Amino acid sequence: MEAQHLLTVEDLLAWPDEPVELIDGEIVQRPMSRFEHGLAQGGLIEETLPLKRHSGPGGWWIIPEISVRYNAHHCPSHDLAGWRKERLPERPAGVIDILPDWVCEILSPGHERKDTLTHFMRLQRAGVPFYWIIAPEDRTLIAYALEAGGYHAVFTAEGSEETSASARIPPFEEIEIDLGALFGEGG
């Protein structure tokens, strides 16, 4: 039996131009973005804009489609990831290898397992403090916080009624997020 050859971040960087990421030593093609995905991603970027404008305490770097190197064989491209500016005061460059304070994945058909299981377990083990999963087609948001080494749901919203409200969701309690903006209401 032949041993499996795990690809590295260097293999990822040398990969021909197409949307891919490195998941557990394997190059995986990124899913094609859909309209609902873009609405959720753009809506969340707009809602967190006040946090991005702050410098110092309370400020955040919130970046879409960012590659994060967790180790030599795992470098996913997150739909959104954020770093507190008090922990990362200077703007980083290139593939970032600093643990995010928050990651948000937006489910794509055929890739749900990657976001709800693979990323969930990997980020939990790595110690990412907050992980959100958004399912645009189901109008669902689940926010997890890391407590005692495991993720626990700290906020959930599902369906038209709950996702039409505003909420203060960890780690962004200092602002109200219009959940309707994440699901394309009013746009």
What attributes characterize this protein structure?
187 residues, alpha+beta, tt1808, chain A, six-stranded mixed β-sheet, 10 strands, Uma2, Putative restriction endonuclease domain-containing protein, Restrct_endonuc-II-like
How is this structure best described in words?
- The chain contains six helices and ten strands.
- The chain is of the alpha+beta class.
- The chain has one domain: tt1808, chain A, CATH 3.90.1570.
- Strands 3-4-5-6-7-8 form a six-stranded mixed β-sheet, sandwiched between helices. The chain has a two-stranded antiparallel ribbon with strand order 1-2. Strands 9-10 form a two-stranded antiparallel ribbon.
- The longest helix has 15 residues, at 112-126.
- It is globular.
- Residues 9-170 form the Putative restriction endonuclease domain.
- It holds the Pfam family Uma2.
- This is Putative restriction endonuclease domain-containing protein.
Low-confidence stretches: none
For the record, the CATH class is Alpha Beta
Number of strands: 10
β-strand percent reads: 25-35%
How many individual helices?
6
Main sheet properties? 6 strands, mixed
How does the helix and strand content classify structurally?
alpha+beta
User: What is the terminal separation in angstroms?
Assistant: 56 Å
CATH topology type: tt1808, chain A
Q: Give me the Rg, rounded.
A: 17 Å
In helices, the fraction of residues equals: 25-40%
Q: How would you write the strand order of the largest sheet?
A: 3-4-5-6-7-8
Mean pLDDT rating: 87
Q: Tell me what the CATH architecture is.
A: Alpha-Beta Complex
The secondary-structure element order is: HEEHHEEEHEEEHEEH
User: Would you identify the CATH H-level superfamily?
Assistant: tt1808, chain A
Q: What is the total domain count?
A: 1
User: Rough shape?
Assistant: globular
